[in-house]
Amino acid sequence: MLDSLRRGALNWFAKGLLGLLVIAFAVWGIGDVVRNVGRGTLATIGSSQITVDDYRQAYQDEMASLTRRFGRRLTSEQAKMLGVEQRALSRLISAAAIDHHARDLQLALSDEGMAEIIRNDPGFQGPDGKFSKELFQNFLRQIGLSEGRYVTTRRQEELRDQLTESLLSGLAPPQALLETLYRYREERRVIEFFTPDFDKLITLAEPEESKLTEYYEQNKARFTAPERRKINVLALTRDAAKQRTSVSEEELKAGYDADKEKFNIPEMRRITQLTFPDKAAAEAAYAELSKAGNLAEAIAKLGFKESDIELGLLAKRDMIDGKIAAAAFALPKDELSQPVDGQFATVLLRVAEIVPGKQRSFEDVKGEISDRLVEERANLELQTLHEAIENDRYSGKPLREIAEKLKLPFLEIADIDRTGKTADGK
Q1: Residues 6+ apart with CB under 8 A from 273
Q2: How far apart are CA 404 and CA 267, in angstroms?
Q3: Could you tell me what percent of the chain has a pLDDT over 90?
């Protein structure tokens, strides 16, 4: 039992650490990183967008989980009471924050590495232990995802796992937490109660002074005021460190030139991908579709659903299969491609929309560069100030003198108890 709790506690720790990561993004320097961005998109974190479709899928996943737990489907009102909407959005924001941090750390999986992960997935291996394209395509049909969408999602999950596992490697919860969780999950109590008729209760007279005195003497511990202390605080904050840093125009321009490629907005294309088990099937479909007057109707007649074939608006770097990506970004708008042999399947492609890429100017990103450089220098300043404070403390200087020397805020807080409250309860 304690082993199962240990695993549960690790999950709890994981959620806590990831929660801190999300809070860190909110507080330390992404700058309006979670914001409304318009129709079809609920929020964006860095370059990660949370779309209405993402939220709908997350909400349905939460509802399915609760349905399995309760043995019946919940109404929308019941789901609202249980906080399903907030939980679904919170999960998406957490995942997007981790994705953003992974990009900042330049974590990536190559197309070859991702292909190897999928090929080695036991769920896609046939009786001979080798990758089965048929099993893979059947799985995609069952979950209602296109190959490109699945690979993109799987890549994100693999990167999140790498990041979170590096944070949690070797982490073990304390025994006190395990025991508390065990008691919470396993303790059972039998409750006996009754409801009195208050109208029939005896009315007691006011107690005599002697009785009050006697009771007080016998229960003095209950009326003892808590210990209170006066404390001095030297406040070393990130804001204080930021106020000590500055970035010149020349440094901003140097930062722009060094990361100019990072500020490119790549060309985006809305891509339709028809997936076939082999080249012969793709060639037969191409022959039929190339003669069709209404391509959308002809595609539907082949048994494809729109949700199966729409990859969405993608940059070239978002596509795992380099050969398919090259074909898609060489294809004229509204034209059907010849069959393309990809890593996992043969496909036909069509581009419904092209959004040209552009280079963001220095003025467009000047604020972002400034925020990043200030954050980096504030971190160094915090470390320098901390070392200076510790050196002065070891030499015996009082906090007030250190604060005056380093020009840091100094606070005197009088008469607080162990909960941090003053005598008036504030």
Answers
A1: 146, 147, 148, 309, 311, 324, 328, 347, 348, 349
A2: 54
A3: 11
CB atoms within 10 A of CB 408: 19
CATH architecture for the domain at 267-354: Roll (3.10)
DSSP state of 208: P
pTM, entire model? 0.40
Name residue 355's beta-bridge partners: 268
CATH 3.40.50.2300 fits 2-168, yes or no: no
Distance CA 45, CA 30 (A): 8
Helix (H) or strand (E) holding 409: none
Tokens encoding 202: 């005896």
Q: Where in the chain is the domain with CATH 3.10.50.40?
A: 267-354
pLDDT tens digit sequence for 87-124: 888 888 888 888 777 777 777 777 888 888 888 888 88
Dihedral class, residue 24 (left if φ above 0, else alpha if ψ from -120 to 50, else beta): alpha
Amino acid code (one letter) for 296: A
- b/e sequence 201-215, b meaning 16+ C-beta within 10 Å: eeeeeeeeeeeeeee
User: At what angle are helices 84-104 and 52-70 packed, to 10 degrees?
Assistant: 130
Look-up of token digits 């109590």:
189
Q: Where in the chain is the domain with CATH 1.10.4030.10?
A: 2-168
Indicate the residue type of 324: I
Per residue in 297-332, pLDDT (tens digit) is 888 888 888 777 888 888 888 887 888 899 999 999
pLDDT digits (tens, 9 = 90+) for 203-250: 778 888 888 888 888 888 888 878 888 888 998 888 888 888 888 999
Which of these, 297, 295, 299, lies nearest to 335 by C-alpha position? Answer: 295
Nearest C-alpha neighbor of 319 from the set 269, 274, 281 = 269
Total residue length of the chain = 426
Comparing 22-26, 117-121, 125-129, 291-295, the range with the smallest average pLDDT is 22-26
